[in-house]
Amino acid sequence: MTLRIEVFDDAEAAARRGAEVIAETARSCAAAGRRFAFAASGGSTPWPMFEVLAGMQVPWAIVDLFQVDERIAPDGDPDRSMTHLRDALLPAAAAASWHPMDVTAPDPEAAAAAYAAALPARFDLLHLGIGPDGHTASLVPGDPVLDITDRDVAVTDAYQGRRRITLTFPAIDRAVSAMWFELGADKRESLTKLAAGDRSIPASRVGTPDQLLVCDREAAPVSRA
């Protein structure tokens, strides 16, 4: 696994670079005559990045837009990542094929299995985030889903008041590339552990071969050399 790090002076510059990575990968897939399989993570940090992406030249018609994780909550709920993803990307991304996690299904386990069956063989690009506790996707410290190896999608225990549906490490690790996008000083400690390969946090267990961290200066990891 290789982690490249790009640090920008402010959140605006970092958001533009993160959007460029997504748009460039989509255009590369289009030039190769194939679809672009992309999965977006939740949380509030990436909203500015997706708003910038909506203003870029993206071949949306060849984009398959999946979710890395989602909170189990009603449609339109402000806790739902999909609510904010649609707000940020529509109408620009109306031509994309949207693949939301069915978190309103009466049987979350069955919904997770159905989502897994609809995934591509591997993603071209995953957008990942990291929490102050070192979680990524909804793979949080102490949750049994951390150790799942035989399923690509799973249902978590409650975390911050919500159960979630999340990609597991096997699905994440098969991706061609992963882009971490982070802003703010509260992420610096976790990103420092990520950059050091500290496996005490779930994020450091991500094994996607090519990984890029895009962050602002406040979030930038501290060298332990």
Gyration radius from CA atoms, angstroms = 16 Å
Secondary-structure-based class equals alpha/beta
CATH class: Alpha Beta
Count of individual helical segments: 6
Please identify, by name, the CATH architecture: 3-Layer(aba) Sandwich
Fill in the CATH topology: Rossmann fold
Strand order of the largest sheet: 1-10-9-6-2-3-5
Separation, N- and C-terminal Cα atoms: 19 Å
Shape: globular
Main sheet attributes: strand count, strand direction, barrel closure:
7 strands, parallel
The residue ranges in which pLDDT falls below 50 over 5 or more consecutive positions are none
Strand content: 15-25%
Description:
The protein has 6 helices and 10 strands, in the order βαβαββαβαβββαβαβ. It is α/β, with parallel strands linked by helices. It has a single domain, classed as Rossmann fold (3-Layer(aba) Sandwich), CATH 3.40.50. Helix 1 packs across helix 2 and helix 2 packs parallel to helix 3. The longest helix is centred in the N-terminal third of the chain and has 21 residues, at 11-31. It starts with a strand and ends in a 9-residue tail after the last strand. The mean pLDDT is 96.
Write the SSE topology.
Elements: E1 2-8, H1 11-31, E2 36-40, H2 47-54, E3 63-67, E4 69-71, H3 81-89, E5 97-99, H4 108-117, E6 125-128, E7 153-155, E8 164-167, H5 169-173, E9 177-182, H6 188-196, E10 210-216
Parallel strand pairs: 1-10, 2-3, 2-6, 3-5, 6-9, 9-10
Antiparallel strand pairs: 4-8, 7-8
